[in-house]
Amino acid sequence: MIEILVVSFVLLQIFSPVATSGSHVEYLPGFEGPLPFHLETGYVGVGDSAAEGGAGEVFYYFIESENNPKEDPLMLWLTGGPGCSSFSGLIFEIGPIAFKVEKYNGSLPNLVLRPQAWTKACSIIFVDLPLGSGFSYPDTPYLQRGDRGLIKHAYQFLRKWLIDHPRFLKNQVYIGGDSYSGIPIPPIVQEISNGNEEGIQPWINLQGYVLGNPVTTMEEENYLPSFAHGMALISNELYMSLQNNCKGNYINIDPENGSCLRDLNTLHELMSGLDNFCTLEPKCAMASPRPHGFGSRRSLINKFQRHLSSRLSRPPLSCKSYAYFLGYDWIEDDRVLEALHIRKGSIKNWQRCNPFNYDFDIINAFPYHVNLSRKGYRSLIYNGDHDAVVPFMSTQAWIRDLNYSIVEDWRPWLVNSQVAGYTRRYSNKMTFATIKGAGHVAPEYKSEECFEMFTSWISNKPL
User: Fold this and answer.
1) In angstroms, rounded to a whole number, what is the distance separating the alpha carbons of residues 85 and 331?
2) Helices and strands of the chain, counted as H and E runs
3) Total domain count, the chain
4) Are 41 and 94 found together in one domain?
């Protein structure tokens, strides 16, 4: 058996050239002393210039598990947008380092350790996809990006990366991400599963996927009125009027339906002073350009556009988005680019979220959840319960439509003997959890609670 595996691996190297380039990063500017974890950055070549999605170089940050990398799972992590760099996931969400949030004085921002890093329980590859996100770059500046190209490139990336890192070939593999990643990740998981079934090498030890506040059906905004009503943001009378006049459809509205339009305008006016990504937070300027929309019938992205405004002025230090400005101050420094081994001339203007043209060619990820449930893959689906962009009700609705029986009914889950949220488990190996008080990118708001949730789930322990 060992001889067969060795032969297969050698043949794979001969017939599938691997365009990879990885370098160990021992020091990072702004962090005192050597890094107490293993960080590797690099590029993997993907795609075909003549095929869908084109070709280019995918940049990644790889952090080896700080626990037991030989046995711990390996997770590929995508940041949403589409077009947002995985730097966000690494620095602002679940990675082992974060910015020390202090008033910017013109010097390089300082980095500190994040005690609640998910790399305490698994190895994580943070990838900049689609091409053009972060430090990834296409072979041609005129590339048209889209969901299907992203899916192909993610699958190719993972296969090539594993070939170049054979010590992880036997590790359990998960695919994770949040926000818009809820659309491409289920198809990516299915692509990997199909490849395994077809005997494509290397065989990937795929176990499941993790999604936070995931865009899934492109109809998430239909749940905004019920969210607003439940959170006491609108009156009973307005909520009842919305139900009567709009008939449950708040996206594709008949322009002749003046009563529905007036009610929706009132709702948006009442919420205009809130941060829709977390209604508990102050409304602050963001440090990202505006991503493109989903199209005329999908107004969900309009919230992303309003939220991710251009970084014209630095917000108060009390704003969560202040750290995003520090991110630009840090990553645009030549010393940082050199430490990360960024190819000179590959990127002219790094942006946390790149507003390129994008084909939203998968408008509903629900059918992929159906297929993956039938195949028995594990999944963790979680929602910050104060997110008005992808309300927890919208996630509960499509999970309910999967029509799997409940094996553990709705109950609180605890951190430090306090309620951190609520959870439920289903017979398709799906766990759903809310994070109390968290917003759209839940780990940014409740890092300790999300850490406990993830490390319990990835270890096959109950929340």
Assistant:
1) 12
2) 14, 16
3) 2
4) yes
Q: Which two tokens stand for residue 457?
A: 């789930």
* DSSP structural state of residue 163: H
What distances in angstroms separate CA 170 from CA 73, 126, 301, 451, one per listed residue?
Answer: 9, 20, 39, 25
CATH of the domain at 182: 3.40.50.1820
Alpha carbon 46 to its chain centroid, in Å, reads 20
**214/226 same-domain check:** no
Residues 305 and 431 in one domain: no
Residue whose structure tokens are 């659309």: 183
pLDDT digits (tens, 9 = 90+) for 196-219: 999 999 999 999 999 999 999 999
CA distances (Å), 445 to each of 281, 386, 448, 450, 463, in order? 9, 10, 9, 9, 19
Residue 275 belongs to what domain range? 222-357
Whether residue 365 is found in the same domain as residue 352: no
Q: Which residues are catalytic?
A: 179, 387, 440
Strand bridging mode 123-127 / 55-63: antiparallel
Rounded to whole angstroms, how far apart are CA atoms 120 and 138? 33
Instruction: Give how far Cα 56 sits from Cα of 19, 31, 153, 230, 379, Å.
Output: 10, 31, 9, 46, 30
108 and 53 in one domain? yes
Q: Are strands 418-426 and 97-99 parallel, antiparallel or unpaired?
A: unpaired
Q: What is the pLDDT of residues 2-41, one digit of tens each?
A: 333 333 333 333 334 445 678 999 999 999 999 999 999 9
Euclidean distance between CA atoms 214 and 189, whole angstroms: 15
Task: Give residues with Cβ within 8 angstroms of 448, minimum separation 6.
Answer: 116, 415
Tens of pLDDT, residues 74-119: 999 999 989 999 999 999 999 999 999 999 999 999 999 999 999 9
CA 219 to chain centre: 19
- The 3-state DSSP class for residue 236 equals helix
